[in-house]
Amino acid sequence: MALSKKPVTGMRDIMPLEMQLRDYVISVIKETYGKFGFTSIETPCVENIANLSSKQGGENEKLIFKILKRGEKLDLENARGEEDLVDGGLRYDLTVPLVRYYSNHSNELPSPFKALQMGNVWRADRPQKGRYRQFMQCDIDILGEPSNLAEIELILATTTTLGKLGFRNFQIRINDRRILKAMAAYSGFPEESYDNVFIILDKMDKIGMDGVSAELKEYGLEAESIEKYLDLFQGLEEAKDGLLYLSQKLQGVLETEVSQGLEEIMASVKATKASEFEIVFDPSLVRGMSYYTGTIFEIAMTQFGGSCGGGGRYDGMVGKFTGKDVPACGFSIGFERIILIMMENGFQIPGEHRKVAYLVEKGMDTGRLCGIIAKAQEEREKGAQVLVTRMNKNKKFQKEQLSGDGYTEFAEFYKNPLKQ
Amino acid sequence: MALSKKPVTGMRDIMPLEMQLRDYVISVIKETYGKFGFTSIETPCVENIANLSSKQGGENEKLIFKILKRGEKLDLENARGEEDLVDGGLRYDLTVPLVRYYSNHSNELPSPFKALQMGNVWRADRPQKGRYRQFMQCDIDILGEPSNLAEIELILATTTTLGKLGFRNFQIRINDRRILKAMAAYSGFPEESYDNVFIILDKMDKIGMDGVSAELKEYGLEAESIEKYLDLFQGLEEAKDGLLYLSQKLQGVLETEVSQGLEEIMASVKATKASEFEIVFDPSLVRGMSYYTGTIFEIAMTQFGGSCGGGGRYDGMVGKFTGKDVPACGFSIGFERIILIMMENGFQIPGEHRKVAYLVEKGMDTGRLCGIIAKAQEEREKGAQVLVTRMNKNKKFQKEQLSGDGYTEFAEFYKNPLKQ
Predict the structure, then answer these.
(1) Dist CA A357 CA A359 (whole Å)
(2) Within 13 Å, how many C-alpha atoms sit on residue B211's CB side?
(3) Is the Cβ of B389 closer than 8 Å to some Cβ of chain A?
């Protein structure tokens, strides 16, 4: 069979220059999140197909890379469908594996448990520019913390990390699924329509108030309810303090602790006086995943065309595994997007060391070669990066290439010691 | 469908304590190899099934996790066999992907190209203690360097890394496939028997000279040849300088450059005066993979029961992809084994920072909470790890747990400021 030089469809090789940046970003993320008490964990890339198909993953469950059973378990002849052939799949996110992990190990873990996960996930999406079928996710989650200390720590850890990576002027937008629901209830929408109302509301950024109105009508909701709903958003635009406005308007359908909780999160985050970003209440923020039960948040970088990550509270998911709910809240950085932005902006990795290239002529006698190798090793011990390589015939071109790779110092070693 | 709390068969979750060590080891490896001019690269975990089944992987090709075709490409009804259902697989090593990567990108890469890869590989081995179906490999390779500068740099980079991780008294054993062949030729074994002779020789450590003799006889080789072969090993045991002994004995069947090359590698490595390890010529070293064409080497840690990595020269593999051979040489550290040894020896990660836990009573008013959050953030900026968590009812137990997680300083914040 012919061998293929290309990576599989929709996946990509990562070149040295990008890897250098990725390694740097990973180290900043691990160090910064570590300062907040998050500890790294890892789960296998393969999960049981039943766990991946349990309706926690929404649309992503249609995009699973499925793994064939092996050995005696594979019975092609009697297989009636895919389910007879497959026992595992590549994970499509890090949340389902985290919840499985926590359910399996909660006895051995501190409570609350603050987890950091960095790992690849796979989705068989239609290949398109800038979107790959294997990509890195970077999630922090706090399990077992019911209070909004979880949200505060997650948001601060994430924004501090982004700040350390040089990001400025970004926004954290925050909302609560319970506010979304209360607004829908207040307007008189039937409960079974909520999910669809939110899907339409999510397009507010793109299609505006009129567009949302038209789509709600098309979906078959009553004109009176739609008007009442959009009046709320109109009022919000004019209100000085949106949260205060809503907590007054929604009395009776929204518990006061919800708006108080958001208030407290925003105040605590602002109290750190971080100047890189602002945190704002955004009542039109929806976040797709249906597993969210409370607060939801998103990183908005308008200068880079949109969201660079997000998260929220999903208090019900652990119970799916254990029968007993555990409070849970997470924040995911859009790692690939962040790398792309940093690459495009020509980000310079700080604090690089000396880079020296030793060019060694062929045919050097062993004794002199030994001396050169020992010298290189000494320089490395002192902190320099030293490349020992053979001298090419076209030495000028070789040095140009090495300069391109970042080498700024050169030492040449000839067979004939007098040439030194 | 019932959800499973366990990881899939043969794979495992990694707990925070081990992850901390893994992260530390990864950072030491990246930094040390970086000093030698190795640059990180990454390839997708999924490869085309044709590439994985091209006979480069030996026995590992029987252990592939195969991935089902998706969408319209999957035609269950008309599938006659596995090959109709599968288009990809999880990589079983990092060498085949590296060679594909190099073939695909050699125009954009420096020559010689020094690559560092750290990544998971998958093998559907029968599950057994300490052996998992997903594990991390850590490979360095030099492509495009025909001279033994490649071997010298690979060995020094690897031993320097092991030294930085605290390993002492280990051995690098080195041999050359061409010496193995010359010894077989000198003894008069037929060429088609070489691979089997080497497989038997590989057991020398376990079954001794007599055992090897018996198995060679059983395999059907002539008694005279066997005697001649074992006499060589007998002579080697008595010889002061094994390499010199062999180069004299094997005159005519072994090119002098082979033994000179090994000599030079050993001398250059010794010239660095590294005291952590010794490098020795081992004529019974075989290394399994049939793709090796020249030098082969292995890290021996007898106190930990055997090999902790190895590698060698495989000048023919790039040609399988491009039609044009490129010199190639690699060294792989047994990452999982190293982690296991370090865990068992209670390795202490150096240079940890202050670890402070803030215990915050429930119901704190927002203003005071803001102050606490701001203070935590300041301490983090100054380098401390600060965990902000709610105060449990059983504070004593909570502190004991946190001590177990490494927190040595505690600050308590009460609702009632007078309690402070």
Answers:
(1) 6
(2) 10
(3) yes
User: Where do the H-state alpha helices sit in A219-293?
Assistant: 223-238, 242-249, 256-271
CB contact under 8 A, B8 and A46: yes
CB proximity under 8 Å: B 339-368 to A: 353, 357, 360, 362, 366
Alpha-carbon gap, residue A155 to A299, rounded angstroms: 10
> B117 and B42 in contact (C-beta within 8 Å)?
yes
Strands A277-281 and A355-360: what pairing? unpaired
Question: Using CA atoms, how far apart are residues B140 and B116, in angstroms rounded to an integer?
Answer: 5
In whole angstroms, give the CA distance from residue B224 to residue B188.
Answer: 9
Contact A79 B76 (CB under 8 A): yes
pLDDT at residue A1, as a whole number:
46
Task: Report the run of H or E that residue A116 belongs to, with start and end.
Answer: strand A113-122
Tokens representing residue A287 in the block: 């976040």
> Burial level of A272, CB count in 10 A (0-12/13-18/19+)?
buried
- List the single range of A191-195, A362-366, B191-195, B348-352 with lowest mean pLDDT: B348-352
Q: Are B160 and A399 in contact (CB under 8 A)?
A: no
- On the question of pLDDT at B1 being above 70, the answer is no
pLDDT tens digits, B128-172: 877 899 999 999 999 999 999 999 999 999 999 999 999 999 999
Beta carbons of B306 and B300 less than 8 angstroms apart: yes
Q: How many helices (H) and strands (E) does chain A have?
A: 15, 14
Instruction: State whether ipTM is beyond 0.85.
Output: yes
Residues of A in contact with B369 (CB under 8 A): 264, 267-268
Chain B residues with CB-CB distance to A33 below 8 A: none
Query: Which 3-state string (H, E, C) describes B117-162?
Result: EEEEEECCCCCECCECCEEEEEEEEEECCCCCHHHHHHHHHHHHHH
Quickly count: other Cβ atoms within 10 Å of residue B352's Cβ: 11
Query: What type of residue sits at position A308?
Result: C
Residue among A135, A10, A398, A26 nearest B70 (CA): A10
CA dist B385 and B17 (Å) reads 16
For B12-24, the pLDDT digits (tens) are 999 999 999 999 9
Q: Which phi-psi region, left, alpha or beta, contains residue A37 (left: φ > 0; alpha: ψ -120 to 50)?
A: left
Stretch 142-201 of chain A: residues touching chain B, C-beta under 8 Å: 145, 147, 149, 152-153, 156, 160
Whole-Å CA distances, A225 to A95, A176, B32: 36, 21, 65
Residues in chain B closer than 8 A to A37 (CB atoms): 357, 385-389
B48, with CB counted inside 10 A (0-12, 13-18, 19+), is buried
Distance CA B246, CA B258 (A): 11
